[in-house]
Specification:
- This protein is α/β, with parallel strands linked by helices.
- 54% of the residues lie in helices and 9% in strands.
- The chain has a 5-stranded parallel sheet with strand order 5-6-7-4-8, sandwiched between helices. Strands 1-2-3 form a 3-stranded parallel sheet, with helices on both faces.
- Strand 9 (478-481) and strand 10 form a beta hairpin.
- Helix 10 crosses helix 12 (210-224) and helix 20 crosses helix 21.
- The two termini are 55 Å apart.
- 30% of the residues are buried.
Length: 542
């Protein structure tokens, strides 16, 4: 029940749809509700509902909208003799009982169903009647469109800068989700912004959470300094953001908009690199102009010769605070020659692992015993934030308390991140079916830039409800980039290739399926981006 309320209802807030049919629903009663102590601790009002023998449906309705009515909830009732609340309110009890006795509703359901409809009516929320499923569909569609127009009004024009920001903002939200920061890193960042004009390099192997840290630092600084000028660029966050010219153009667009400059941004890549130092010098030059806080993440993922870092000026103006992250390799070696400040991101200490485990699970009103916390935090593999967070997410989804120790042992017995994700995929296969998991994961693997939900439905011919359940269960490991589902990190991508695409023929076939699908689409950006690339990867140049 906790998962139902938190994962299904809370994640959709404020939007809620309640459909009332001809059954009041199962009444769990107090003994059943008490089996989930976390639920009562989180929602103490459920005790009263259980004692008054309310159905689970009414509890869901109450949690979603009835206890605190709002204008983003809609209710619909199946047409029948129990319609017309105004009429029923005027009837005496014998008349109501006479009507109820003629209905096909079981006698035990009638009082509860009538009381539920009266409760909905008393809140003032809309309760619309429908006779056929098609009519219900039309009513729901009309109400949802009204909500979309109200809450997400379509802009007449999206500026190039707004379009550029979208994938980086989405990436930032995804990376900092449930992130537990190391106070030392936050302190070093604040010190760098306030006192040190030398750029700051965040270095460390993959899996230590550098991108999450970068996203967190930018968000926290903006939250505490509303007037600050913060620009964040995550290499790989967008389908067109992985070359040096992409980074430079984005930064120039931000500077031009912030300081209202008339200068044109060069269209030639060589000119962009040449003028980049001049544009950086234009930031923060006015008396009241804020300095530029520039964060560039994962320069090790830059394409071509971008990793050699020749595009980044050796001298960064004092009005710019540059933070740049990278893994060991060519970019870091080159940056170290410049004498800039370096902050090495270290593996998590044992005490940090315990604190992260407590805080992460507490967000979902879950907790481990001291012994279980010690087992997890003392394992050397948990020094990797990615390993630890993946393990904790698996424990959060696990619903059998008596088997929790065995579940923890299973994941900790993995040899590392690659093996851990093999076990995650095995768990998903148990929950959703091997064929379904393999089908969806290999499709996303084969896509050049990811696939939208509609494209996944078309490619795999899965029922929408099955695809939705699978995508929701993978919420932590997937990210949406410009509406396209792709992987949160490369470890999952590699695990999928190892598990489902071990042979070269399997990989070429996966690309061929995506190529064939896009060859049937009307010509547009998506077909242009995917179809020729897929046929090339499939080895079918003709």
């Amino acid at each position: 029940y906790t998962m139902l309320f938190r994962s299904e209802i809370d994640r959709c807030r404020p939007y809620f749809i309640g459909i009332v049919g001809s059954r009041y629903g199962w009444v769990p009663g107090m003994p059943e509700i008490e089996k989930d102590p976390e639920l009562l601790e989180l929602y103490p009002w459920l005790r009263d509902y259980a004692e008054r023998e309310k159905s689970i449906i009414e509890m869901e309705f109450a949690h979603g909208a009835l206890r605190e009515p709002h204008d983003s909830a809609f209710f619909y009732e199946q047409a029948g003799p129990i319609d017309g609340m105004d009429l029923l309110d005027k009837m005496d009890e014998p008349s109501i009982k006479s009507i109820l006795s003629t209905m096909s509703i079981p006698p035990t359901d009638r009082p509860g169903l009538l009381a539920l409809k009266r409760t909905i009516h008393s809140t003032g929320l809309p309760l619309r009647s429908f006779a056929m499923p098609e009519e219900l569909g039309e009513q729901v569609l009309a109400d949802l469109i009204t909500l979309l127009d109200r809450d997400f009004p379509q802009k007449a024009h999206i500026t190039p800068l707004e379009r550029e920001r979208l994938p980086h903002d989405a990436y930032s939200i995804n990376r900092r989700r449930s992130y537990v920061a190391n106070p030392e890193y936050l302190s070093r960042f604040r010190e760098h912004v306030e006192r040190d004009s030398l750029p700051l390099i965040l270095s460390g192997p993959s899996g230590l959470g550098k991108s999450s840290l970068m996203a967190y630092l930018a968000h926290e600084y903006e939250r505490n300094n509303p007037d600050a000028f913060v620009v964040q660029h995550f290499v790989g966050a967008s389908t067109t953001g992985s070359s040096p010219s992409d980074v430079i153009r984005h930064v120039m667009m931000e500077i031009k908009a912030k300081y209202d400059l008339a200068d044109d941004i060069p269209s030639d890549d060589a000119k962009l690199v040449e003028e980049f130092p001049v544009w950086l010098a234009k930031s923060g030059t006015g008396v009241r102009s804020p300095k530029l806080i520039l964060l560039i993440d994962a320069v090790n993922q830059l394409t071509g010769i971008g990793q050699e870092m020749h595009w980044l000026p050796d001298f960064i103006p004092p009005s710019v605070r540059l933070v740049i992250s990278t893994t060991p390799g060519v970019p870091l070696d080159e940056l170290r020659t410049r004498g800039w400040t370096e902050l090495e991101i270290r593996p998590l200490s044992e005490s940090q692992r315990r604190e992260i485990a407590r805080e992460y699970l507490a967000e979902f009103n879950k907790k481990l015993t001291d012994r279980q916390l010690l087992t997890i935090s003392s394992d050397p593999k948990s020094e990797s934030p990615l390993f630890l967070r993946t393990l904790l997410e698996e424990l959060r989804l696990f619903g059998h308390h008596s088997q929790l120790d065995a579940h923890i042992t299973n994941y900790l017995e993995s040899s590392g991140l690659s093996d851990l994700f093999q076990r995650v995929l095995a768990r998903m296969e148990q929950d959703h079916g091997t064929e379904e998991v393999q089908s969806v994961m290999t499709a996303i693997w084969a896509a050049r830039y990811g696939l939208s939900e509609t494209e996944l439905l078309d490619v795999k011919h899965l029922p929408r409800i099955k695809l939705s359940e699978l995508l929701i269960s993978m919420d932590y490991h997937l990210m949406q980039r410009e509406g396209l589902y792709t992987f949160f990190h490369y470890y999952l991508r590699d695990a999928i290739a190892f598990r489902y695409l071990a042979e070269a023929d399997d990989r070429t076939a996966a690309h061929a399926r995506i190529g064939e699908y896009f060859s049937t689409r009307e010509y547009g950006d998506r077909r242009r981006d995917e179809q020729p690339w897929q046929w090339q990867e499939a080895g079918n140049r003709e």
